[in-house]
Amino acid sequence: MKTIRLTMTQAIVRYMSSQFIETDEGIQPIFAGVFAIFGHGNVAGIGQALTEIQDELPTYRGHSEQGMVHSAIAYAKANNRKRMMACTSSIGPGATNMVTAAALAHVNRLPVLLLPGDYFASRTPDPVLQQLEDFSDPTVSVNDCFKPVSRYFDRIMRPEQIINSLPVAMQTLLDPENCGPVTLSLPQDVQAEAFDYPEDFFKKRVHNIRKIKVDNEELVRVTEILKNSKKPLIIAGGGVHYANACDTLKKFSEKYKIPVAETSAGKGAVSWNHPGYVGAIGVTGSNAANNLARQADVVLAIGTRLNDFISGSRALFSDKKLVQLNVARFDAIKHNAFSLWGDARLGMNELDDQLSDWKASEEWFLESEKEASSWNDYYDQITSINGSSDADNNLPTDAQVLGEVKRNGNASDIVVCAAGSLPGELHKLWRTEQTGGYHSEYGFSCMGYEIAGGLGVKMAQPEREVIVLVGDGSYLMLNSELATSVMLGQKIIAVVLDNRGFSCINRLQNATGNRSFNNLLKDCKSIEDGHPEINFAMHAKSLGANSEHVENITELASALERARLSTKSYVISIVTDSHKISPEGGCWWEVAVPEVSSNEKSDEVLSAYRKSKTNQPY
């Protein structure tokens, strides 16, 4: 057997560069690059290895470990989990900074390869700089924090261990059911150790995403359930995108006259003007989708985890017959559902063969069209410049900003959002026209994802305009990858909606019977002069972006035109109303209410909370 002598990290990056995948665009490298922030725990090992392979596996310098992983995750999502990136950090804080992003990838079932440095396997120089010491277990390091947020974790204690571990890592990253973050913890001395690796280990390998076929008995049962339904409703989740099943869903809905509602991850699977489209469902949903959910007799959920925002904390359609078509067995049985375990596209095609000439009732589909039409009228009103303002000097609402961004946009635009008020407003109000045009991280609802995520989306879809919509709180939490976007020439447009604090949680605080406290800046402990007035445009300019502040919606329109003409990232800030959100749409969401409170409204809120809980199945 022919061998080649390499350090462990040289072997890792060489193996990564030899992995390819077959996509609609042809055979492409699985790993588009590596985001890296070097420190003493990885600069001499994997840093040196990456230097030697730049032409095949480029390295991108991040400004924040969490941010660079967010960018990598967004890249994978924008590529429907077929292509991805790796991220490497030093030991200690560099590694723990990636844990939050690893959790985000885990929750959203998205692939990213994490390569944090670790202590010395030899333990000779212990304790090294930034090493955690567990007094009872010398094998523990901060990298053990990755275990609960990784789909696969391994600490490489000898250089030959990667021969077994790397194929398992690849299988996990490309597994449609078990997809998620993989962490290979790399002790800094082992990174530099050499081994005679088999040459065959580095041969080019072309992968395909396996497709899980549905079980025939489950198919027969689900077919019978649908044929006996009069008012079925489809809920489209992110799995529809990952299975490349968007066109299949559109045809399925049209043929069988079944209306389609969408989750945040599923948004864009069906365009907003499709005849079966009824909009967002759940807590951040439209009246149309939620009214139909209450009337439906069967709900067919396709590729969704059905979290509490979609199910209304299990109160929106708990009394309906639920079918789950999902590639993950874990999800397919949720909410006591009838399982149809398998690939979304294969599953719909199999159902198509079985349903034959069955269709939902014409009256039901007409009802869905009526509900959608009513919601479209509401959309026109709430997003218009004067639709929700009583006076010319009123601050613009989030809905008005979204309406103006949409009016000045193109069908091919990709909008990016993550946390706060915006994902809710966008879920129910953003009109997606092209597949992939909506990118929301709302599984982990991680503040600070937006700017970094926008960079990752742009790297995946450089031909499309990427528009990041972000609140001031999220922007302040993590904005450093704006500088990375400028450095890499990956232009994004970011609109910062400044409502002077965490207004979304302030409204929730009030809704649960509590007084405003520590959320809006004006309600926080501060010096006599009060909270700082933050100039987001100047801050963005200091990071190398073009920027400007606008005073109103009219100025926003012209600023968006300038932003589109810009050759580098462009930030627009605008002050918005911190109290007003779209009043229509949505449903109940369970957030625990204190049973004892000094607030005079607490008894009333607690009574309403207990009444709403009676709609839950248990």
Descriptive notes:
This protein is of the alpha/beta class. Helix 12 (308-311) links the parallel strand 15 and strand 16 (321-326). The N and C termini lie far apart (62 Å). The model has no long low-confidence stretch (mean pLDDT 95).
Profile the largest sheet.
6 strands, parallel
Q: Tally the beta strands.
A: 23
How confident is the prediction overall: mean pLDDT? 95
Helix content: 25-40%
CATH homologous superfamily caption of the largest domain: Thiamin diphosphate (ThDP)-binding fold, Pyr/PP domains
Count of domain modules: 3
- Which structural class fits the helix and strand makeup? alpha/beta
**Head-to-tail CA distance between termini:** 62 Å
CATH topology of the largest domain: Rossmann fold
Low-pLDDT residue spans: none
Give the helix tally.
Answer: 24
> Quick one: CATH class of the largest domain?
Alpha Beta
- Overall geometry comes to globular
CATH architecture of the largest domain: 3-Layer(aba) Sandwich
Strand order of the largest sheet: 5-4-6-7-9-8
Radius of gyration of CA atoms, rounded to a whole number: 25 Å
Strand content: 15-25%
Task: Write the topology of this structure.
Elements: E1 3-7, H1 8-17, E2 19-23, E3 26-29, E4 31-36, H2 46-51, E5 59-61, H3 65-78, E6 84-89, H4 93-96, H5 99-108, E7 112-118, E8 152-155, H6 162-173, E9 181-187, H7 188-192, E10 194-198, E11 205-207, H8 216-227, E12 232-236, H9 238-242, H10 246-256, E13 260-262, E14 277-280, H11 287-295, E15 298-302, H12 308-311, E16 321-326, H13 329-332, E17 338-341, H14 344-355, H15 362-383, H16 398-407, E18 414-417, H17 422-429, E19 438-440, H18 449-460, E20 466-471, H19 472-477, H20 481-488, E21 493-498, H21 503-511, H22 536-542, E22 546-550, H23 553-565, E23 570-575, H24 602-613
Parallel strand pairs: 2-11, 4-5, 4-6, 6-7, 7-9, 8-9, 12-13, 12-15, 13-14, 15-16, 16-17, 18-19, 18-20, 20-21, 21-23, 22-23
Antiparallel strand pairs: 1-10, 2-3
Helix pairs in contact: 3-5, 3-18, 8-14, 10-14, 11-15, 16-17, 16-23
